[in-house]
Amino acid sequence: GKKEEQLKSEITRNEYKAEYSEKKNDLIKLCMYALVSMCTNDVDKKNKIVDFTNKLQLSFQYLDDIADLKEDLKDKNYTVILNTLLQKVSIENINEDNLISLLIENKVLLNFVSNIVDLFKDINSMIDNKISSSSKTYFNNISKNLDVLHIYLKGINLDLFKLDERYKVSKIKEVEKRIEIVASSS
Questions:
Q1: In 10 A of CB 72, how many CB atoms?
Q2: CA pair distance 27, 20, nearest whole angstrom
Q3: Of the candidates 48, 99, 49, 47, which has an alpha carbon nearest to the alpha carbon of residue 71?
Q4: Are 120 and 150 in contact (CB under 8 A)?
Q5: For the whole model, what pTM was predicted?
Q6: How big is the CA angle at 62 (ends 61 and 65), to the nearest 5 degrees?
Q7: How confident is the model over 141-148, as a mean pLDDT?
Q8: What's the rounded Cα separation, in Å, for the pair 69 and 75?
Q9: What are the two backbone dihedrals, phi and then psi, of residue 115, each rounded to the nearest 5 degrees?
């Protein structure tokens, strides 16, 4: 009955997400292959295009992982960030209510966001600064929102976070808000 319909709906949604993500990645790769094929004999250009594409693809996958943290945990879709947390905390001790807290406490979210920020810096260094386009504006907006989240995470006092419940709750709410801003900008 109702449970079966709900399960079918969840499976369909997850299949759609996986298919959408796969198609998006294939499109990025297709663009890369087209660009590489135009650089007939320039191996350096080809390598730069491949490097750029791989970093772009990885950074957007990581952004998606951050945006879907609680959903991925619920669906047992153990992404890189969740697997990193599982190396520090037993699965029995993780739930949707304490997920963000554990990610902050164990510095998993900070390290993960740091990696994305580094990827974005690498990508940005490969983009011609003289070019003005909506794509570059879009990329810069995501990058700025990531930087804000990164700076905020670095500023959390973990000792106080572990001891003061009000401090902890306020920081979790703010981090969730900032994650939502990053997710909506990407």
A1: 20
A2: 11
A3: 99
A4: no
A5: 0.78
A6: 90
A7: 93
A8: 10
A9: -65, -40
Predicted local confidence at residue 59, as pLDDT = 86
Confidence bin at 186 (pLDDT 50/70/90): confident
Closest-CA residue to 10 (of 184, 65, 18): 18
- Is 17's pLDDT higher than 60? no
Residue 4 CB coordination number (10 Å):
8
DSSP calls for the chain: -HHHHHHHHHHHHHHHHHHHHHHHHHHHHHHHHHHHHHSSS-HHHHHHHHHHHHHHHHHHHHHHHHHTHHHHHHTT---HHHHHHHTTS-GGG--TTTHHHHHHHTTHHHHHHHHHHHHHHHHHHHS-TT---HHHHHHHHHHHHHHHHHHHHHT--HHHHHH-HHHHHHHHHHHHHHHHHHHHH-
CA dihedral 100, 116, 18, 11 (to 10 degrees): 0
Express each pLDDT in 100-121 by its tens digit.
999 999 999 999 999 999 988 8
Is residue 63 within 8 Å of 116, Cβ to Cβ? yes
Contact 176, 103 (CB under 8 A): no
